[in-house]
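Q: Second attempt. The first request was missing the SMILES, so the protein and zinc ion are both included now.
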Amino acid sequence: METEGVVLKSRDLGDRLRHLTVYTEKLGKVNLLVKLRSADFPIKYEPFSVTEFKLLQKGEKWEVVEGKLVKENFPKTKGELLYRSKIARLLSPLELSPENRLYQLIKRYIEEEGTPPAYQAFLMKFLFLEGLTPRLFRCVECGSSEISTFSVEKGGVLCKKCGEGSGIRWSREASVEAYTLTKEPLEKLKKKRFRWLNLIETAAQKHLRYRTEK
Ligand SMILES: [Zn+2]
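A: Got both inputs this time. The predicted holo structure:
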């Protein structure tokens, strides 16, 4: 079995043994066991690297027979490290099936430097691909377009009456920004100004966790 994958996590088990968490093109997110050979140049098994894997199934586990580096994304700055780690941390605990558009999204965003709004754009696009986009323009409860809060539990925005001051502070402008991050390519987004990125990040991450944990 051969598949390309983006390394999300790499843990040393000692004795030249490594445990990898990888989002692969053909298997989705998998855990892989690697026995490093002395000739192996381990950057291909480091977090954020894009690697072509040759795998062997052993029971329910996958072992790496061979790895060929496609692109290393070793962070050159602290900003890059924080940004790429955030993506890896977001994805590592989730169960993710193989999906070409998701693979392309991860591969595309993991090599970014991480200047805002890269992470928030990744997050919103990821929610969209997973079918988890929150309701953004009408109150989840009554359908009113007067938006005042974001409710993680309800999965979208609430008006003042229905929200009763609970939830995350929100506005129509925040919804427009979240929608723009979902829809537009990063090149275009980089030229725009956003005012709600922190709240969008908080809301989107909580929204995702609420729907994927347990
Ligand atoms: Zn309402």
